[in-house]
Structure prediction request, 376 residues.
Amino acid sequence: YYYSLTLTLTLSPNPTTTATHPPSTPPLTCRFSPADHRRRHSPFFNNHLLSSNNLIKAITLTGPVPLMWQGQTKMGRTKKTVKYVVVDAFTDTEFKGNPAAVCLLEETRDEEWLQSLASEFNISETCFLTRITDSDSVHPRFHLRWFTPVAELTVQVELCGHATLAAAHFCFSSKLVTENTVEFSTLSGILTAKNILKPKEPVSMNSENGDAEQQFLIELDFPAISTTDCPGNEASLLSNVLSNTSVIEYKQTALEDYFVVLPSADAITAYQPNLEEIKQLPGRGLIISAAASPESGFDFLSRFFCPKFGIDEDPVCGSAHCALALYWSKKLGKCDFVAYAASPRSGIVRLHLDEQTNRVKLQGEAVIVMEGSVIV
Prediction:
């Protein structure tokens, strides 16, 4: 048996031919068998439309449309989408800084699906936002979860800076949040992000655009991460991993990262990691850092390696800077820093350590480089 459907087609000329066609054709009636829905094309589609020189601009179906066609995708499932963006964090330039995928969920999804999507994106972090509608806060609040390509960060680590910055940038730039503050409920408690004006650069007398649009920074309010000296046996392991590198100090952070201080900026950029050996270390990952040269404009620089979680080198690690700020504050006798992430993608993090509250404010820019929908 067949379903009888009426199709109204709107056609336009094929730009590759000189033939002309009327802008529309009269309604056509054709028959579809129940088997046709499985390949989505009737003989009419295959033999007429696909072989014509027309570009199909619109198709309207009327008549008793089979229920099995309504709201279905090619595989016969109900079509729903999850909006996502990919944001480069701690940079003002596309394809620099640290990329993160930000997904806005309208309903909860199981952890297996979340992890599978993070593996599909296969970038350093994928985060998931779910709006909290019953919050008692005066600011908009979202649940926020972070996943690496290999394992969910909340299983072992409770903090991710660059993906939080990316999530905040998405909230502000998409007008999902229309004020200048947003809150995220995470395993590290409530994290606050603010949209603040970036200090203006001096304008040249010869500038043609003295009224350039004011730019913004995202400011994150994170807990400071303490560091302690490495136990002797773990320092020995690190010494083997860094066998050809001169080391000033061996430290470890409260987030179970190893933290090694090297003698110079050149030692940081020249370091060639043995990722297999780093993966075998007991902690999460390895931070290397050194004081920057005075002429560089930075206070210190660093790199972070986390192959255990599928991130050979994290381009700009926000949570690592929560430990770096506390360490370098004691060494340099100051609380405000401009830090340089010396990964191949590079990035800049502005930091303020509040010694009274033991909090770190991280400031950075972000750029959306991709947007779309995931079909679920």
Remarks:
- Residues 34 and 146 are 44 Å apart (CA to CA).
